[in-house]
Design a protein that fits this description.
Chain lengths: 123, 150, 211
Amino acid sequence: MGDFIASSLHWFEIVRYPLGGAVCLLGALLCIVGTIGVLRFPDFYTRLHAASITDTSGAMLILIGMGLLAPGWLIVLKLFTIFIFILLTSPAASHAVANAAHTAGLQPLIGPVKKNQDEGNQA
Amino acid sequence: MSSSHHVILRVVSKTLIPVIALYAFYVQFHGDYGPGGGFQAGVILAVAVILYALVFGVPSAMRAVPPAFTRTLAAFGVLLYSGVGFWALIRGGNFLEYGALFNEAPGGHKGQHIGILLIELGVLCGVSGAMLTIFYSFAGRVAEIRDEDW
Amino acid sequence: MSEVLDGSVGLATVNILLLSLLFVVGIAIARLRSLFAIVMLSGLYSLLSAVWYVVVDAVDVAFTEAAVGAGMSTVVLLGAMLLTSRMAKPEKRLARLGPLVVVLVTGAMLIYATVDLPAFGDPNSPVNTGVGYEYLLVNWNDTGIANVVTSVLGSYRGFDTLGETTVVFVAGIAVAMLLGFGERSLAESIRKDDKTTKSSAKNTVKSEGKS
């Protein structure tokens, strides 16, 4: 049993470098996808969704990849703290932009959306 | 500003504003060992209060951190920095000579450590006070912007 | 210059990409008329500069640039934009000819000067053989502080930092004196509070009188 753990740790030590690099590359690919989306989508809300993919998923995958490549436990802890921070704030930022646009009256391309629908039903 | 569709922003900023303030103090005290110091810490502390003002309204932030307090804080920061210099003068050394603060032997580090700690604290107070004063001057001239005005 | 390019083509590529992005953002700021977009792009410019400072190993400067440029400066510019207008006024066609000539001449002179600068990380440059190198040698014995940037800022060049702090303080007080201390918003909220407390006190007195 101890032998199995030792051999799996040894395997992890070898495999974490290419794995970390591959995850970082995947995160960079998501950032490129997000950028192409921002440039090509027709509507504000769809462009905002593409931008939030770069902010959230791209950044988090790059952080996970860097955590796999890290040389020590302290650096993994710091990267984890940054990961939690981005997990909390990046979706909130995209929500803030969409909220501001919707409150200002910007309608999506597929058709108008009624503002404050639940308040209208209650009144 | 207190309508229900700002709930997510309010919850997230209520979680994060104490963390941002704590991070400002971490940067302040970590300046001796890594990147950091008074200027960065002062700006991050001011940004924490500004985030509160953006999400909850400027009058609410002014009740928490009054403009008179920010002006006093900025002045106190500069006074603290020059005060360390005058303390060295009183002890017989040159202005801002940290070796003369505690009358120690020429190879001692205590004066350097305490002196730099105090002046970084002065820089923190001065920079955060000045940044908040500038923000209050700009944001305090506009009447409260309601959602319908956009 | 060729030594740097031989050892690290990747680093040179990153530098060239970042600086060309800065160039593109600068041109976009000059050409746009929507002030909101200009404010956001100037925040983006500060962030790109901060990334570039990290690439050239100036981490303290990058930290300050990111905090001040992307955080504080964007908020203050947005506040100023709310006080004025949302679009820049359209300009006559030849109004930018003079500034363009000035910018081109200054840029040419600066590029001509940078050819003479020592290579990045050159061990024989005046920075690495003169006073900078001496600070690195004597810093630990003199001050006992690990971060040389902080010890130079606070101890060896403490007068300069005192001047910087005073300049920031004076800037804050000058803005406050020009634009007002921000008490219009505070006074408005206090007046609103007084009105609501007075009306609720009147209502409770009335109801107690009736019952």
